[in-house]
């Protein structure tokens, strides 16, 4: 926004005041350009797109392969729930000028803050390791070579880009990487889909009382409504205020709040709708190409890509594998960045990707440490690839206390001032939290029945 304002002011400053052209002449409307539309979107788009990381792709592929079209209804259910909780997260960041951890450090106890920071750091780091392993396997599937080399290449590249690339340029790169998700819409075209069954699976929930079924539900909820997404979007809203000198936290500068909330809502809804559309494409592709043919033992996203070759053709396999790499390059910075924001804001260090490395050394050290441990997991007997599915389950369980904390925070006047969350958004946030609680409880009961 600031960049656009500067360019406009510069244009007017350089415009000649004399000559034949009247000063009041209206400019012709600019033609639609996709680049401009993409530029207008913010943290919501990147957050939604990063939700479909290799871990998520593995989870959706497993769900479609094991349960078929009948699991598609979860995408219809999760859309309003994830949109609500992400909008609340974004509002907290925009109103207060701090991310979630920054607000916890100011208004809650130290033990609660430390618990949130440690759990998020662990969950994100494991997720990074799993995603790097999946990206390496997908690249090996495409061009051969050694997986460990690709783990190092992708991991180091992501860290270096976050630390040394200009913030605005880096955000632009992340936005363009969201286009890699369209690979899964393309892959869907190669699957012989029974659209009647697929539509029934989306609109008519089919429940099965079993541990496997509810574990899959928790995994899906955990990979669509993930704690790191809350932290990232809230912190990015706060970050934008540090980058744009015209912005102040809304608790300090009330003017323009309605416009800002409208922007946040539109950005979040578009990002979450995009995320769920892609997730649904993956589920339907796996159901049509794998479940129908009896291939239900998919363990990772790379296995899903490989399994598509004999059923949907080599091109479908290539498209699926390329999507894994592209989404991983988008998700790893968000995972590492969310961990760094949480720890840095909790400790009240200088934080932000817009800062130079020497201005936020501790923040960047946490970011590099999280990514570094994620890389190292691929060199240990712990196989991060086999942890893809379970990392989503862990995120689902971890999301419960974080969501409760977020909802309580959004209602406190000493946090949100006059902008406490009310009305439909507030109750939809609690509905999202309740859905996550019920799914986790159902999974736990299933283990003992």
UniProtKB/TrEMBL annotation:
Keyword Cell division in annotation: no
Main subcellular localisation: membrane
Protein topology in the membrane: Multi-pass membrane protein
Localisation: Membrane
Annotated region (Disordered), positions in chain: 1-32
Keywords associated with the record: Membrane, Symport, Transmembrane, Transmembrane helix, Transport
Endpoints of the signal sequence: none
Residues passing through the membrane, by range: 110-130, 142-165, 172-193, 213-232, 268-291, 311-341, 361-382, 388-408, 428-448
Pfam families per the UniProt record, alphabetical: Nramp (PF01566)
UniProt superkingdom: Bacteria
PANTHER family: NATURAL RESISTANCE-ASSOCIATED MACROPHAGE PROTEIN 2, SOLUTE CARRIER PROTEIN FAMILY 11 MEMBER
Name used for this protein in its record: NRAMP (Natural resistance-associated macrophage protein)-like metal ion transporter
Naturally occurring in which organism (per UniProt): Bradyrhizobium algeriense
């Amino acid at each position: 926004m600031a960049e656009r304002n500067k360019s406009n002011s510069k244009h007017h400053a350089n415009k000649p005041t004399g000559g034949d052209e009247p000063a009041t002449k209206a400019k012709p409307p600019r033609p639609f350009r996709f680049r401009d539309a993409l530029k207008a979107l913010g943290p919501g788009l990147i957050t939604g797109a990063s939700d479909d990381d290799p871990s998520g792709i593995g989870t959706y592929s497993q769900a479609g392969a094991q349960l078929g079209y009948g699991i598609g209804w979860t995408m219809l259910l999760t859309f309003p729930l994830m949109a609500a909780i992400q909008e609340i997260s974004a509002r907290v960041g925009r109103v207060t000028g701090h991310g979630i951890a920054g607000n916890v450090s100011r208004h809650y106890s130290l033990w609660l803050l430390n618990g949130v920071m440690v759990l998020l750091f662990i969950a994100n780091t494991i997720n990074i390791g799993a995603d790097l392993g999946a990206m390496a396997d997908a690249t090996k599937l495409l061009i051969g070579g050694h997986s460990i080399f690709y783990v190092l290449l992708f991991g180091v590249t992501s860290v270096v880009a976050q630390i040394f690339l200009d913030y605005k340029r880096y955000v632009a790169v992340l936005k363009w990487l969201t286009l890699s998700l369209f690979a899964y819409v393309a892959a869907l075209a190669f699957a012989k889909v029974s659209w009647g069954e697929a539509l029934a699976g989306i609109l008519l929930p089919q429940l099965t009382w079993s541990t496997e079924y509810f574990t899959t539900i928790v995994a899906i909820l955990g990979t669509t409504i993930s704690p790191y997404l809350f932290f990232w979007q809230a912190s990015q809203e706060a970050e934008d205020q540090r980058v744009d000198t015209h912005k102040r936290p809304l608790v300090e500068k009330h003017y323009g709040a309605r416009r800002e909330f409208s922007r946040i809502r539109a950005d979040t809804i578009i990002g979450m709708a995009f995320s769920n559309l892609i997730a649904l494409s993956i589920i339907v592709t796996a159901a049509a190409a794998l479940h129908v043919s009896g291939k239900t033992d998919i363990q990772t996203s790379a296995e899903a890509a490989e399994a598509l070759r004999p059923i949907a053709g080599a091109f479908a396999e290539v498209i699926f594998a390329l999507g894994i790499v592209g989404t991983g390059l988008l998700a790893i910075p968000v995972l590492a960045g969310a961990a760094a924001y949480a720890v840095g804001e909790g400790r009240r260090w200088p934080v932000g990707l817009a800062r130079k490395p020497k201005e936020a050394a501790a923040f960047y050290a946490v970011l590099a440490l999280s990514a570094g441990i994620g890389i190292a997991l691929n060199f240990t007997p712990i196989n991060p690839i086999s942890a893809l599915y379970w990392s989503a389950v862990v995120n689902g369980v971890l999301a419960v206390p974080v969501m409760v904390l977020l909802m309580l925070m959004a209602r406190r006047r000493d946090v949100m001032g006059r902008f406490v969350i009310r009305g439909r958004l507030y109750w939809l946030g609690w509905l999202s939290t309740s859905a996550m609680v019920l799914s986790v409880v159902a999974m736990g009961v299933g283990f003992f029945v």
